[in-house]
């Protein structure tokens, strides 16, 4: 069975929706951010502060390229789409679902200092600039686009409904 790979901006709820979707489908759940923390022994903000953006992106891409699983809902980091090799690998055995969320909602969920949230971006970059950079990549890699809803259960149900509607059996 194929995996479901959730992509989208930080703050869209990939982790909470992913957990809810995995429960609905009887799948395993994997959060790539957790794998990064486990592999490095550091939190995402610590990696960004001590090792820098390029090291973070390299680690994230490597983990994405080496992830091997089945029947799993995978919550990627918002920056996973910056690694073409990782996204190509994840889509070989998975359906990529972009949880699209309005920029205004994402901005409301973000701290002033994006590094505090572990967001992979150069210093001084705004959430709007990150969105403008990544939105075309989310669109490029997405097999399906699902509008993020208020509750994670509603969004998880919507992902399942859209997949079935287009003939993809989760």
CATH topology: Rossmann fold
H and E string: EHEHHHEHEHHEH
**How much helix is in the residues?**
40-55%
Largest sheet: 5 strands, parallel
Low-confidence stretches: none
Tell me the total number of β-strands: 5
Q: Which overall shape is indicated by the principal axes computed on the Cα atoms? A: globular
SS content category: alpha/beta
Would you tell me the overall average pLDDT?
Answer: 89
Give the number of domains: 1
Strand order of the largest sheet: 2-3-1-4-5
Q: In CATH's first tier, which class applies?
A: Alpha Beta
Q: Please, what is the oligomeric state? A: single chain
How would you summarize this macromolecular structure in one to three sentences?
The protein has 170 residues and is α/β, with parallel strands linked by helices.
Task: Describe how the helices and strands are arranged.
Layout: E1 3-7, H1 14-25, E2 28-31, H2 32-40, H3 44-50, H4 53-66, E3 72-75, H5 84-92, E4 94-100, H6 103-109, H7 127-141, E5 144-147, H8 152-165
Parallel strand pairs: 1-3, 1-4, 2-3, 4-5
Notes on the structure:
The chain has 170 residues and is α/β, with parallel strands linked by helices. The chain has one domain (3-165): Rossmann fold (3-Layer(aba) Sandwich). Helix content is 51%, strand content 14%. It is built from 8 helices and 5 strands. Helix 1 crosses helix 8 (152-165). The protein is globular. The termini are close together.
